[in-house]
Automatic annotation (TrEMBL):
Pfam families associated with the record: GDP_Man_Dehyd (PF16363)
Gene3D superfamilies the UniProt entry points to: NAD(P)-binding Rossmann-like Domain, UDP-galactose 4-epimerase, domain 1
Residues of the NAD(P)-binding domain: 8-348
InterPro entries: GDP_Man_deHydtase, NAD(P)-bd_dom, NAD(P)-bd_dom_sf
UniProtKB keywords: Lyase, NADP
Reaction(s) the record says it catalyses: GDP-alpha-D-mannose = GDP-4-dehydro-alpha-D-rhamnose + H2O
GO molecular function term, any single one: GDP-mannose 4,6-dehydratase activity
Function per UniProt: Catalyzes the conversion of GDP-D-mannose to GDP-4-dehydro-6-deoxy-D-mannose.
Transmembrane segments: none
Protein name listed in UniProt: GDP-mannose 4,6-dehydratase
Enzyme class per UniProt: lyase
Stated family: Belongs to the NAD(P)-dependent epimerase/dehydratase family. GDP-mannose 4,6-dehydratase subfamily.
Its EC number(s): 4.2.1.47
Origin species: Bowmanella yangjiangensis
Amino acid sequence: MSSKKVALITGVTGQDGSYLAELLLEKGYEVHGIKRRSSSFNTQRVDHLYQDPHVDNRNFILHYGDLTDTSNLTRLVQQIQPDEIYNLGAQSHVAVSFEEPEYTADVDGLGTLRLLEAIRLLGLQDKTRFYQASTSELYGLVQETPQRESTPFYPRSPYAAAKLYAYWITVNYRESYGIYACNGILFNHESPRRGETFVTRKITRGLANIAQGLEHCLYMGNIDALRDWGHAKDYVYMQWLMLQQSLPEDFVIATGQQYSVRQFILWAAAELGVQLRFEGQGIEEIAVVESVTGACAPALKPGDIVVRIDPKYFRPAEVETLLGDASKAKEKLGWQPKIDVRSLCEEMTRHDLVEAQRVAFLKRNGFDCALSGEG
Ligand code: NDP
Ligand code: GDR
């Protein structure tokens, strides 16, 4: 019998899933991931981990599956017999959850129940540990600042309401059936692998493209929103750490620093050698180029307008401010974030600049090159 630990990750093709898979492989795990059937490739973030199915002793194995499919999930859990399940799969976009509330509830809420039920029905209560990707969105309309484990929840979107169910069903299965199940209440975390429609990546990618002349203007929603942003690599380490304790507990994971979306725009532009100034108010607000230094933004000159507000990006109910207090994780687990938000912004902007430069180069040389997908 192999002594390797076996992990199952839902959402392995996403930002966190890809970093977590790397971490677990480094630690010697056999890692199984669930990927969704899609009409085009959706495994870019884990392609570097791919192993030919014809070789022996593979330690990274992908299975088709879906969080809406109970029999599929139960069969996979039965077949894999995981020591640890990390439930990272979700319809994770808050704005999209207003467009697809029922689907979001099914995947993000009931999907969690389906996995917990699989553990219970298969009699794996004493073997399989369960991590639930809970979220700072649970705090929504915040009742206390900073937010900690004891802060009351007030979800403000179908996404957050679905995650609220997932949070409590995780607690309930721990208390009812003795399953080692925990919630990581993670505040926003980003990386060059962040999906392109989340605000930080939209900014770094959009400004890099504008700097290279591939796009002209970035259209934004509520740039007054305040967030506590960390790096996904730091946060997946915490997901693993939570399952290595003697007792299951829930933890807030955050940096304890809060900045506005507007500030993130200014930082990303500065990484490109572009100084911006915001002018106007409300939906008339714009960001104008004040000066350009260095060679990263050849397409820009002073006076260019690079950011405008488009109310279509406003949400029916907004989460205006989030700021986490991760004291419990620091004290009990010795966890500290290593990467600050400026370094995060720099890494993301540099990454997106390289891609924009590549596309601009190809276009200048007569190739019809579309902007590529995920970083
Ligand atoms: P991503 O959106 O990058 O990844 C989501 C993953 O879930 C993808 O692999 C996606 O597959 C998969 N997925 C979506 N729908 C289904 C489904 N029906 N069945 C199976 N898998 C599905 O999210 P992140 O990596 O950023 O976040 C990971 C988890 O952590 C999510 O649950 C998110 O809600 C939560 N979270 C994230 C935070 C953050 O700031 N990043 C903060 C707090 C919580 P595909 O690639 O095919 O789309
Ligand atoms: P969030 O992340 O909703 O916090 O959910 P997102 O990056 O989408 O938005 C952060 C804030 O920026 C404002 N905003 C915009 N957002 C987007 N996406 N696009 C815009 O153009 C724009 N302009 C302003 C938003 O209104 C919001 O206030 C993320 C997801 O990863 C969730 O899955 C996770 O649970 C939470 O973080 C913690």
